Amino acid sequence: MKTQQNTLFDFEIKNAAPLAERMRPQLIKDFVGQKHIVSPNTVLWRAIKADRVGSCIFWGPPGTGKTTLANVIANSTNCHFEKLNAVASGVADAKKIIDEAQKRLATGKKTYLLLDECHRWSKAQSDCVLGAVEQGIILFIGSTTENPYASLTPAIVSRCRVFEFHSLDEQEIKQALKRALVHKNGLQSFDVEMSEDALDHIAWASGGDLRKAYNALELAVLTTEPNENGKVVVDKQTAVDSIQKKALSVDESSYYDMISAFCKSLRGSDEKAAMFWFARLISAGCDPMLLARRLVVHSAEDVGMADPNAMVVATSAMKALEKIGMPEARIPMAEAIIYVCRAPKSNYVVNAIDEAFDLAEKYADAPVPNHIKYNAYQRSTDQEKATYLYPHDFGGWVEQQYLPDVLYKKDKN
Fold first, then answer.
1. Phi and psi of 254, rounded to 5°?
2. In angstroms, rounded to a whole number, what is the distance separating the alpha carbons of residues 174 and 269?
3. Quick check: 63 and 212 in contact, CB under 8 A?
4. Which end of the chain is more exposed for a tag (fewer CB within 10 A), N or C?
5. Among candidates 211, 199, 195, which has minimal Cα distance to 175?
6. Does the pTM exceed 0.70?
7. Phi/psi at 80 (nearest 5 deg)?
8. CA angle 214, 47, 185 (to 5 degrees)
């Protein structure tokens, strides 16, 4: 008797939604990851159980469960749930939901509004829901991959509790993949036999993104022919082919976090860390010239007069980058990174220039002392003809006032 085989075509007809969508947990007990905010006795866990979740913002990398947790909240509460995507919605859509929520509230039923990619809403769009959130007409849940403190209007953020999501670790990814292999909504019907090293590779290569891991698993299973026993055997090579190189791209918030880590590693004299963040950023597609500019700035800001040669090395590396380009220029760049890290540190230069600008702003009207004024034209009074002492007539230096009177007196005191 011929074994009936599932084909890709048959499977797609019966299961149009991707595996990641089919495997979304409906209950909080099935939610994977984010134990720092979703585990027994955490604030959010208790709020979900008690049906007391207020307006909040879920912030974190893609594929970490932001939308899934919003759906869990929807299934765990007695509230009505509406969903919008910030890319495809506007003020009219939000106002319609608010109007309907107000009518619903009159009957005692609350409404949640989930706004995916909420950082894409403009200030005008965000402002249209402020009043409704303030009055409790809607409960707002925003999900975003961008830092809400930088990408959202402060008015929205101040009315919400922000929960930061982290990338899932490899064990959490593997747990979810194993569940998908045997779940009725997953790949149960394929009778998959998957090696542990294949699971390990997908978990590693997904970079903490469960959606990416699900996509790779589904591709690996659907493109593997069953053996004579009807089993779909997925080995490590199939897993490698399905997900290929580990993703190195970064979203905007982690991009700036890594640049900050690079700069602070230079300042902290940790050459290994500085080189690591440099490599991470370059691998993720960061413009190397941006890092070269930061290197030049930090050679003056954090090394400065303790070793002025650091500026020479850093600017030479930037020039090398400009002239020869990558990947060769990574070598002089690395030399400059190591030099700046190993150099003695002094922030005298940056403190001096900051103080100078502060004083220039505070004493913007302080006049130039007469003896150092421009002398190419005739002065009208004897007082204005005060004598300037030419330092070279005195061996290169002579005591003389150069600051305005008000600052000179303060400096002397």
1. -70, -25
2. 38
3. yes
4. N
5. 199
6. no
7. -75, 150
8. 25
Looking at residue 381, what DSSP letter applies? S
In DSSP notation, 180-214 reads HHH-TTTTGGG-EEE-HHHHHHHHHHTTT-HHHHH
Partners of 128 in the beta sheet? Answer: none
Is residue 121 included in any domain, yes or no? yes
Chain Cα centroid distance, residue 1:
56
30: Cβ contacts below 8 Å, ≥ 6 apart: none
Number of Cβ within a 10 Å radius of residue 272: 9
User: pLDDT per residue over 337-394, tens digit each?
Assistant: 999 999 999 999 999 999 999 999 888 888 888 888 877 555 555 555 678 888 999 9
Q: Which two tokens stand for residue 367?
A: 């006049």
CATH of the domain at 68: 3.40.50.300
Single residue among 212, 243, 274 that ends a domain in this structure: 243
d(CA 295, CA 310): 10
Count the Cβ atoms, other than its own, within 10 Å of residue 364. 7
CA-based nearest residue to 391, from 413, 371, 406: 371
Going by C-beta distance under 8 Å and a sequence separation of 6 or more, which residues neighbour residue 381? none
The CATH number covering residue 221 comes to: 1.10.8.60
> For the chain, how many structural domains are there in total?
4
Say whether both 213 and 107 belong to one domain.
no
Q: In the 8-state DSSP scheme, what is residue 55?
A: S
Helix (H, G, I), strand (E, B) or coil at 120: helix
With 0-12 / 13-18 / 19 or more C-beta atoms within 10 angstroms meaning exposed / middle / buried, residue 9 is exposed
Task: Please indicate, yes or no, whether residues 71 and 91 belong to a single structural domain of this protein.
Answer: yes
Give kind and range of the element (H or E) at residue 406: helix 405-412
Cα gap 69→5, rounded to integer Å: 35
Structure tokens at 274: 């500085």
Supply the pLDDT for residue 252. 59
User: Domain check: are 261 and 321 in the same one?
Assistant: yes
For residues 163 and 59, the answer to whether their CB atoms sit within 8 Å is yes
Separation between Cα atoms, residue 260 and residue 294, nearest integer Å: 10
The encoded tokens of residue 240 equal: 């490698």
Q: Which residues of the chain have pLDDT under 70?
A: 1-16, 244-253, 376-385, 411-413
What gap in Å lies between CA 353 and CA 304, rounded to an integer?
12
| Tokens encoding 52 | 């007391």
Domain that residue 402 falls in: 364-412
Between the CA of residue 352 and those of 72, 154, 261, 278, 357, what are the distances in Å?
Answer: 55, 34, 25, 29, 9
